[in-house]
Amino acid sequence: MLMRAAATLAGTLLIGLPAFAQELIVEQQVERVIVIEDEEGGLEMELLPAEEVKPGEQLFYSVTYSNPADAPAKDVVLTLPVPEDVSLLGDSAVAEYDQASVDFSVDGGATYIPREKLIAESGLEEIQPVRVSMPEEITHMRWTFNREIGPKDSGKIFFAAVLKDNPRPVSP
Question: Which partner from 12, 35, 162, 169 sits 20 to 30 angstroms from 84, CA to CA?
Answer without folding.
Answer: 35
